[in-house]
Amino acid sequence: MSLIETMKKRQSVRSFDTQNITEIDFKTIRDYITMEENLIGPFGNKGKIELIQVTNNVSDKGIKLGTYGFIKNPQGYLVGVTENSKYTLVEFAYVFHKLVLFLTELGIGTCWMGGTFSRNSFEQEIQLGVGEFIPCITPIGYPNQKQRVFDKALRYVVKADNKKPWEKLFFDGTFENILTKEQADLFEIPIEMVRLGPSASNKQPWRLVVSQDRKVCHFYIEHTPNYSSKLGYDMQLLDMGIAMCQFELACRELNIEGGWTVEEPILKLPNEQTEYIVSWNRY
Predict the structure, then answer these.
(1) In this predicted structure, what is the pLDDT of residue 153?
(2) CA max distance for the chain
(3) Which fold has domain 3-151?
């Protein structure tokens, strides 16, 4: 299946069928998250992903896992574990989103959750090392087609389908010049995949500047002031890892060869909330 088509159709699923995930699918997931190559980000940082099977939202250890009523009938959870620093968070989200897309292709529903779950209950379930914490989780299960009304209502509340237009997100050479689809050249589809990606509260904090020779795409984050500050980490850095994942996988499918570097260009930033993250260089 085309990963670009998978990115287009992926949606957050909050209502799951009561049918258990098959052992074959659970084994496929376990195999994926135990392969080291699937856990390493673009710059070599490695995260951990733990699989928890549940019955009535209670784990095999008897721990009730809390998601504040947002999730119905999950059959399990995938729990992310990493360190709380800028690039470990970005890289971990890149890794975690690749898993989300892999599950989408299997027909398994997911929903990125960074704030609307009880960290304490999940911390009781898994072993955290020194300096590690849980940045995100996703419930998993087969989507409940009969309860799509519930999901659609939540999507409306969080404005999940209201994606910002190109002129708000993407720029040509400098932040003063808007980039249109027609001007994006080979990067048009990878950039559109960034636009369609999920983000915390649908804030879409990514800002991309494409070099005038169309060989480099610089990724910036426009921080939402005080967003997630009570959680003790910058949740919007996860959004940047998601953007990187969507962009790179689209490039691969389109045979656009390139790689990631951290080399900040000399550009006038539009505001003090904007911060450079990474660049994609076309070979």
Answers:
(1) 55
(2) 58
(3) NADH Oxidase (3.40.109)
What's the rounded Cα separation, in Å, for the pair 80 and 138? 9
Measuring CA to CA, which residue among 37, 44, 6, 86 is closest to residue 246? 6
| 166-282 has CATH 3.40.50.720 classification | no
Parallel/antiparallel/unpaired status of strands 170-172 and 206-210? parallel
Instruction: Name the one residue in this structure whose structure tokens are 């890289």.
Output: 91
Helices then strands, counting H and E runs in the chain, come out as 8, 10
pLDDT tens digits for 27-60?
999 999 999 999 999 999 999 999 999 999 899 8
| Distance (Å, whole) CA 258 – CA 34 | 27
Q: Residue 180 in contact with residue 42, Cβ under 8 Å? A: no
- CATH 3.40.109.10 residue window(s) in the chain: 3-151
Contact predicate 77/138, CB 8 Å: yes
CA 195 to chain centre: 12
Helix 86-106 crosses helix 236-253 at what angle (to 10 degrees)?
A: 50
Rounded to whole angstroms, what are the CA distances from 161 to 69, 109, 152?
A: 21, 17, 10
Q: Where in the chain is the domain with CATH 3.40.109.30?
A: 166-282
Q: What is the pLDDT of residues 66-96, one digit of tens each?
A: 887 789 999 999 999 999 999 999 999 999 9
**Residue 151 pLDDT exceeds 80:** no
The percent of residues above 70 in pLDDT, for the chain, comes to: 95
